Amino acid sequence: MGSKERRERIKQATREGILSGARQIAQAEGWSGLTIRKVAELIEYSPSMVYEYFASKEAILEALLEIGFQQLTNAMQQASAAHVDPYQRLQAIALAYWHFAQANPDLYQVMHGMDGVTVNPELRNQAAWPTCLLVEQDLQLLLIDEQVTSPNLREDSEILWAALHGIVSLALSQRLSQAEQIEARIQRTTQALLQGLLMTNS
Predict the structure, then answer these.
(1) Distance separating alpha carbons of residues 62 and 118, to the nearest angstrom
(2) What is the pTM of this model?
């Protein structure tokens, strides 16, 4: 391995260490407790070293937001690809959405501006676009399969996402009773919404 490649690997490892440290602080104190100085202390670097990679706390949050949506989209794509039937695909990506949020509540908070996190809305929308598109594409497949045409496909997909986000957000904040039944609730909600959309557009 050449010196250039070695330097790049070190830089990448340092960047990942900073982001990992930020998540550890958030998990322990919430995102309001995150500061550059705390990250530097945790990973045993100087604050100036952290600033060489991220100009501010907000820059760290923006990087984590992008990583979160990349990981979420990948998980949903894998869940969708495991099924041929479009109805099952939508059910699968809904569960994948919940499983991601359950496993990464700190990232989910950053991605959706929870726990006092403030991130550029334009950047959030841009990062979320592949996820939105996946829901929209699978919904379109279902409508085609059912020989139904929707004049508001984008709106229909946003309704699905909004309902899913509502359940997941309430579950993460422990505001739902019988939290162990979240998967069943997501499946029931998805089923009801899909049936409603099919009836509305038929």
Answers:
(1) 9
(2) 0.91
